[in-house]
Amino acid sequence: MKRLVSVILVIVLASVLFACSGDDNGSNGDSGGSNWKQFLRDYESWADELIEMSAKFEDGDMSLLDEYIKKLEEMPEWVEKWGEILVELTIEDDQAVLEEFEAEAERIGEKYSAVFGD
């Protein structure tokens, strides 16, 4: 199950990074707030909980299995939210904001890759 979660997290983050890296738009205005920053904080917190649960499973503690499954069932919602944030950032057309978002998403992706590995 740990491997499944790592694969899903990597796919979601890779999709985001791919979408951001292909954007060559210039900056033309204010970023419009920190909606994406809050999203990334919430996503990282959610994924951190999955990591903690995975560690407990690895130690043989299966008491959180139901909660873990519920978290996994939230995955489609997170994928949808990623898409919404990317649309927002694309509409804003602010290269500096896109680069900041990409850097933060990459940091989160590296964190999970270090935990789950290949």
Please give a quick description of this structure.
With 118 residues, the chain is mainly α. It contains 5 helices and no strands. The longest helix has 24 residues, at 35-58.
Task: Give a description of the structure.
With 118 residues, this protein is an all-alpha fold. The protein has a domain of 82 residues. The chain has 5 helices and no strands. α1 packs antiparallel against α5, α2 runs antiparallel to α3 and α2 packs antiparallel against α4. The chain is elongated, with a radius of gyration of 16 Å. The two termini are 14 Å apart.
Key terms for this structure?
single chain; 118 residues; mainly alpha; 5 helices; 79% helix
Distance between the termini: 14 Å
Q: Return Rg in Å.
A: 16 Å
Instruction: Spell the H/E element sequence.
Output: HHHHH
The helix-and-strand class reads: mainly alpha
Oligomer type: single chain
